User: Fold these one by one.
Assistant:
Number 1:
Amino acid sequence: EVHLVQSGAEVKKPGESLKISCKASGHIFTSDSIAWVRQRPGKGLEWMGIIYPADSDRRYNPSFQGQVTFSVDRSINTVYLQWSSLKASDTAIYYCARHEVYDDGPGWLDSWGQGTLVTVSS
Amino acid sequence: EIVLTQSPGTLSLSPGERATLSCRASQSVNSRYLAWYQQKPGQAPRLLIYSTSTRATGVPGRFSGSGSGTDFTLTINSLEPEDFAVFYCHHYSRSPFTFGQGTRLETK
């Protein structure tokens, strides 16, 4: 089983940059993929996209393309979600979650991080 | 993009009753690629069901999933107090892998 631990809450001002992390431990396969999921206050879940740590291949939900960047440091089993210029509308809880490998592709999300609350306010 | 629409938005029931939650897709989804999650306040979502009807490890037998094509259902038999939460359906058919907007199951 994969265990995901995310970095702590952040408070930022509009226009600032930010990078949050998600560290994986446990039985990690080379074909694993990690998704980022946004949840705005009082709202539902939004799948932002996916990164494959083995080769850093990334697929973004078109709704988030150009707004965020996914990256990975394989040496420490950690994936990152990054913003270059935050907006108030980025205020949300961000979850990382592991896609189970299924039919040689991403399947269901079977392990979730605890979430990172990002607050953007002037 | 496949849009998943859940209904009802809120379901008010009492412990012991049966809950039926619906998830309708804007396009046909292979039943192998549809999952359900439960989220309680202040917690991360938890996988309940994958491939439409397979319960995840540790999920009680009162939870069951069914459906095909564009219509999928999560049924919870004999509700327990700990079942009240928000439930999301999710497809992983093709990117982007979207979620439904959620159904809130509340105590009547």
Number 2:
Amino acid sequence: AQSVAQPEDQVKVAEGNPLTVKCTYSVSGNPYLFWYVQYPNRGLQFLLKYITGDNLVKGSYGFEAEFNKSQTSFHLKKPSALVSDSALYFCAVRDAGGYNKLIFGAGTRLAVHP
Amino acid sequence: KAGVTQTPRYLIKTRGQQVTLSCSPISGHRSVSWYQQTPGQGLQFLFEYFSETQRNKGNFPGRFSGRQFSNSRSEMNVSTLELGDSALYLCASSLATSGRGKNIQYFGAGTRLSVL
């Protein structure tokens, strides 16, 4: 069965420092991976996706993610965090059954302090 | 281009009642998926519709149902509400549904349902 794990419930970083939000996955076949962000009282906003190709994926708002097949990881990164990046981040994998079903991790709350 | 629109934004119901939530996808998008978000269970897939047909279904009881209209708008219905149905219900739309799963899903702001 497909699954996604986000091992950290919360990540705290200082503004201006680099940030990493971790995600590991378990899939059969090639993984289709996504990162979404959720701000309070809002839906999910798409950040980036990995389908095939370069292991470093660039996305919205300066975020990028590194796909590592041997470690089955897809960590979200940003070189310099902003206070406005504080939000709930979800990693997701497309279900192997096809179509558009996403399986989400539990989410990681990112807190960026001034 | 307008995003995914969900109505209403907030709902308060009592146990045993039924509720209908509405979702208007991004113009041109033909696939609509529904997810339930709760603090305990996180984000869970409910079902997906494409061209008025249910293409995929999550592990929810039959009290949860949905449909899609010819204009791609979708509704989901929950009958005989239980306290545990209190959640944020999110709708997502994408251009198409395919086995290659390259489609990005765009989410609405959600409908927050409270069951008393």
